[in-house]
Amino acid sequence: MATRTEKDQAIEVLVEEIKATNVLYLADTTSMTAEATSNLRRACHKNGIRMKVVKNTLLQKAMERIEGRDYSEVITTLKGQTSVLFADKGNAPARMIKDFRKKDTKPVLKSAWIDEAVFIGDDQLVMLSNLKGKEELIGDIIALLQSPIKNVLSGLQGSGGHKIAGLVKALEERAA
After folding, report:
1. Does 130 score more than 80 pLDDT?
2. CA 173: distance to chain centroid?
C-alpha cells in the first residue's frame, strides 16, 4: 500500500499534468488484454497523446485541487478502471479511439474535457472525432476571407487584363 506521502506526490504530479493541458479524455480500459493495452499505448504515442492509467480517487483529488476549472461533471464518470488521455488537439484522442476500435471493443469513452467544455459518454465519440482543431478553423476562416478577394481579382483579370487597364485609365481620367 502506498504511503500518504506517496499518494500526495502522485496527486501533485496529476495536478501539474492536468493543468498543463486543455484536452483531457477519460476512457474505460477494463478487461483489455496486455497486448491490446500495449497496442493502445503505441497508438497514443504515434498520435501525440499521453496515456496514463490512474486510480479514480487520486484523479478526483487532483481535479478538485485545480482552481479555476470545474471538473465536477467529469468526476462523476470516475468508475471502474480509468485511463487518462492527455492531448494538444481536442479531436486527436477521439479519432485514435475510433480507429483503434476497428479491431477492439475498448477503450470506451467515459468523458472528455476540452477547453472547459464537457462531453459525457461513449456516444459523443463520433461528434468529438469530427471536431475541428484550432488550426483547421483558422484555415477555414482564411479560405472564407480569401474567397471574395479571389472573385474580385479573377473578375478584374478576365478578358486578358483589359478590365484592369480600363479601370486604371478611368481612374486616371477622373483624377485629371
Report:
1. yes
2. 56
Task: Please indicate, yes or no, whether residues 83 and 120 belong to a single structural domain of this protein.
Answer: yes
User: Could you list the residue range(s) of the whole structural domain that residue 74 is in?
Assistant: 4-129
User: In the predicted model, is pLDDT for residue 163 greater than 90?
Assistant: no
Compute the residue count for the chain: 176
Please tell me the distance from the alpha carbon of residue 82 to that of residue 68, in angstroms, as a whole number.
24
Q: Are residues 88 and 156 in the same domain?
A: no
Q: Are residues 123 and 171 in the same domain?
A: no
Q: Are 109 and 27 in contact (CB under 8 A)?
A: yes
70 and 8 belong to one structural domain = yes
Which grid cell is 97? 479511439
Predicted TM-score of the model (pTM)? 0.74
Residue-wise pLDDT tens digits, 25-81 = 999 998 899 999 999 999 999 999 999 999 999 999 999 999 999 999 999 999 988
Instruction: Give the Cβ contact number of residue 72 at 10 Å.
Output: 11
Distance from C-alpha of 34 to C-alpha of 118, rounded to nearest angstrom: 30
Same domain, 51 and 99: yes
Number of domains in the chain: 2
| Whole-number average pLDDT of the chain | 87
